[in-house]
Amino acid sequence: MKKVLGDYAGWWQAISDEAKDSFVDGYTTAMLKAQLLTHNECMRDAKRVQPGPDFNAKLQQSLKLCVVSEAFDYKGGVAFRIGLNRFYDNPLNITIPPEFAMEYVRDELMGNKTTGELLLELNEWRRTMK
Fold first, then answer.
1. Do 73 and 31 meet the contact criterion of CB atoms below 8 Å apart?
2. Higher-scoring residue by pLDDT: 22, 1
3. Domain boundaries of the chain, sorted by first residue
4. Region of residue 111 (left: phi > 0; alpha: psi -120 to 50; beta: else)
5. Closest to 105 in 3D by CA, of 120, 74, 83, 126
6. Phi/psi at 38 (nearest 5 deg)?
């Protein structure tokens, strides 16, 4: 019920560690599938590009899909549960849905963004997800 009411921190804190691990496993498995699909499509498209007047444009288009596939890169296992516990321990993050929290923790774990970039993004979410 807490999740339905927008209290994502309360929902996260109320579920067991086993349920948290199941959530993280399901989420990361789905993201891995999305990453593999988009990456494979990118590689297929790149191999189909033939020399000609549209070569550069078509190659760039296929490479954009490769870049998109990296947005689905979620590795970390139990580190995600620990990161989400820490994320939702902050009362300012109560209204931030888990898919955003997962993105934040992923970027934090993988060093995809600086501390300043993470804070700017987090403050924007806090402002817009009330």
1. yes
2. 22
3. 8-128
4. left
5. 83
6. -70, -40
